[in-house]
């Protein structure tokens, strides 16, 4: 199978090799040292400030989203949240569940964030802002500069879900003055799923110290305390943390985050150019694309049927959409261990489907 989804994605041989090894005991100086190296490289790749801290939580990305909310926010906050797809909706559900007052900025699927979406919320006493930098479900890459400027003007604490954009689009945490950034192991980090990585700026650490967390397992006070010595409060997904270490060092030795981002950008462009060149019956449905994924509306066939056909007859996973986008949108990912030749095969399969009048 070739995997063109947005996660889990294909891993490099070195990362996969770790998966075959015995899982080592982890309350050791060697493991601690590796964790501190992971912290150093994650901070470097996100351009986090020196005094920021990283925690590695054993849960998927959504666990990181929930941890951010239950450790940094209280019912005294007044939150703004962008909702332009299923991950924005998840923030809305979490704020509701944890009784954090909020206002939702609803965006039509596929639409970019514009200054006019924020204008009416200036000087209205909002204390915090939550957003996806890239809403993966619709493939919309939001202009985080707009939000960051809004937050600086309005003194808002900024929580950014960069789960599908870290290491495939540029991100400067210090310049954005973000309090929390969240990512996951199975997107552009291209490891197995199971770890949420969170960078916590001093503004977040201050909030975490004050808030009484309602969940012991996701208590960031405990995670921070243990991470001072490169450890975790509970048994973590040791194997995935080792994969992350190999992967971060791979990226570092290839030239760092910029090089990895450029690699994804090149793959995305290669695929998008081929789509046009071959005049395939798919429309790009996002006003603002990330390098992570190309969201497509197939004009002549159900998106989900194309997904099934590609999986069952061509040995390829394209990325289906759920809910009311199931039949109208599928996505092609550009993250993970993929090459141009993989896209040649994908395009050839689409051309074959057209010749057979399936699309
Ligand atoms: C994948 C993703 C998540 C959720 O991650 P899980 O690992 O599936 O919990 C959250 N936000 C965004 C933007 C994502 O792409």
TrEMBL record:
The lineage of its organism: Bacteria, Pseudomonadati, Bacteroidota, Bacteroidia, Bacteroidales. Its cofactor is pyridoxal 5'-phosphate. GO terms for molecular function: 2-aminoethylphosphonate-pyruvate transaminase activity; oxidoreductase activity. InterPro entries: Aminotrans_V_dom (IPR000192), PyrdxlP-dep_Trfase (IPR015424), PyrdxlP-dep_Trfase_major (IPR015421), PyrdxlP-dep_Trfase_small (IPR015422), SP_NH2Trfase/AEP_transaminase (IPR024169). Keywords: Aminotransferase, Oxidoreductase, Pyridoxal phosphate, Pyruvate, Transferase. Substrate binds at residue 331. Coiled coil: none annotated. Residues 28-219 form the Aminotransferase class V domain. This is 2-aminoethylphosphonate--pyruvate transaminase. It holds the Pfam family Aminotran_5. Its EC number is 1.12.-.-, 2.6.1.37. The modification N6-(pyridoxal phosphate)lysine is found at residue 187.
């Amino acid at each position: 199978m070739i995997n063109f989804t947005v996660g889990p994605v294909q891993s490099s041989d070195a990362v996969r090799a770790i998966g075959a090894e015995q899982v080592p005991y982890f309350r050791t100086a060697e493991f601690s040292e590796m964790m501190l190296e992971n912290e150093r490289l994650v901070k470097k790749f996100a351009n986090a400030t020196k005094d920021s801290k990283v925690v590695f939580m054993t849960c998927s990305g959504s666990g990181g989203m929930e941890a951010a909310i239950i450790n940094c926010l209280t019912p005294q906050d007044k939150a703004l949240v962008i909702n332009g797809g299923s991950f924005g909706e998840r923030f809305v559900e979490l704020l509701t569940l944890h009784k954090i007052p909020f206002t939702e900025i609803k965006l039509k699927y596929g639409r970019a964030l514009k200054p006019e979406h924020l204008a009416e919320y200036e000087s209205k006493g909002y204390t915090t802002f939550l957003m996806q930098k890239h809403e993966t479900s619709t493939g919309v890459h939001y202009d985080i500069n707009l939000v960051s400027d809004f937050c600086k003007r309005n003194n808002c604490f900024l929580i950014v879900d960069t789960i599908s954009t870290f290491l495939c689009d540029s991100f400067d945490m210090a310049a954005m003055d973000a309090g929390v950034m969240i990512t996951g192991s199975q997107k552009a980090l291209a490891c197995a799923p199971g770890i949420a990585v969170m960078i916590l700026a001093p503004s977040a650490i201050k909030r975490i110290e004050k808030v009484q967390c309602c969940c012991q397992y996701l208590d960031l006070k405990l995670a921070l305390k243990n991470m001072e010595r490169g450890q975790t409060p509970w048994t973590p997904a040791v194997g995935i943390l080792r994969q992350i270490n190999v992967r971060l060092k791979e990226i570092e030795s290839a030239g760092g985050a910029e090089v990895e981002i450029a690699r994804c950008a090149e793959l995305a462009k290669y695929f998008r150019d081929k789509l046009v060149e071959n005049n395939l019956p798919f429309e790009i449905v996002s006003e603002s694309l990330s390098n992570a994924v190309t969201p497509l509306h197939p004009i002549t066939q159900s998106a989900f049927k194309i997904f099934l056909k590609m999986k069952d007859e061509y040995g390829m996973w394209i990325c289906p959409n759920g809910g009311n986008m199931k039949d109208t949108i599928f996505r092609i990912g550009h993250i993970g261990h993929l090459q141009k030749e993989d896209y040649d095969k994908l395009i050839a399969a689409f051309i074959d489907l057209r010749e057979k009048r399936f699309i």
